[in-house]
Structures are given as structure tokens and as C-alpha cells.
Amino acid sequence: MLITLPLPGTLAQGATYPPPPILPPPGHPRLFLRPADLPEMKRRTGDPYFAKAWKRTLDQSAVAFDGVLSAGPTNYDGRIHDVAEACALRYLIEGEGVMGKKALTIIRTALPVVTYPDKQDITREKCAPILTAGIVYDWCFPLLNDEDKALVI
User: Fold this and answer.
1) Taking the model in full, what pTM does it have?
2) What angle, 0 to 180 degrees and rounded to 10, lies between the N-to-C axes of helices 51-61 and 79-94?
3) Three-state secondary structure string covering the chain
4) Could you give the C-alpha distances from 55 to 12, 33, 44, 46, 86, in angstroms and in order?
5) Which pLDDT value is given to residue 77?
6) Dist CA 33 CA 57 (whole Å)
7) Terminal-to-terminal C-alpha distance of the chain
8) Half-sphere exposure of 7 toward its Cβ, with a 13 Å CA cutoff?
């Protein structure tokens, strides 16, 4: 079945686009994992085979970074995603509200002001904060306010 959507600007004023034929699953989390995955993720935090990855998560979440970026024409900092994602994962798995709030603070602070170097292949650097914002949005959803949702969406 082929679904044809109208081009932007072709709908009558006040009209809305039809919903897409495939919708995301209800509830959160839904990005990279689902609620049914959480018990196994929690169990794995004590698994020796998972220990190295979990230690990295704990170490990254402990980095002192609040999303404040340096002044200048380019200020991209990889800690935007490293620290925010680690904090969001700890919030999701451990329920650590402080970690979820730290992840949100990084996104609130960095996302509106991050700038990138002028170079040929900048795709990864530009996409990483966008993906991280989506992860924090999904994994820390209960902590979001309307302003946070508007910032990410």
C-alpha cells in the first residue's frame, strides 16, 4: 500500500497532517530498550562480564560537567553525550533522580548553544548531541517539563 502525504504548505490553514501509518510504542523507555528489558539490565550491573561497561557508565556519570560550553566560534564537547547518556542510563536502571536531573541539565544547557567546527565531515559531531537529546528525553521522560519537551522536539 502506498501512502501519499501532502507536501508542506499544501494543507488548508489550520489543518493537520494525518498520523503516520506506524507509531512508536506507547510509554517510555522506547529508544534502544523497552520497559521489559529493565530487570535484565539491572541484573547485568552485577554480572562480571558486564562489569567493565558498567564501570565506564559509573565513571562517565561522575564526570563534573553541567553542559556549560566554552565561548568561541566552535564549542562542541564530546562530554555532552558521554556524560548525559551515562547519567540517563543510571536514572533508568537505578532510579537515581540526581543522575536524571544531571542529564537534563546538560541537554538544557548545551543543546541551544552548541556550535561545530567548520570542516568537511562533521556529521558525527552534529548528530551525537541530537541522538543524546533523544535518549535523555526518552529515558528521563518522567522528569521532563513542557519546556524540556519543546527544546528536544
Assistant:
1) 0.82
2) 110
3) CCCCCCCCCCCCCCCCCCCCCCCCCCCCCCCCCCHHHHHHHHHHCCCCCCHHHHHHHHHHHCCCCCCCCCCCCCCCCCHHHHHHHHHHHHHHHHCCHHHHHHHHHHHHHHCCCCCCCCCCCCHHHHHHHHHHHHHHHHHCHHHCCHHHHHHHC
4) 54, 20, 12, 10, 10
5) 87
6) 17
7) 29
8) 1
Residue 12 grid cell: 488548508
- pLDDT of the residue at 90: 97
| pLDDT tens digits for range 101-124 | 999 999 999 989 888 877 776 677
Q: Which three cell numbers mark 67?
A: 553542559
Residue located via cell numbers 488548508: 12
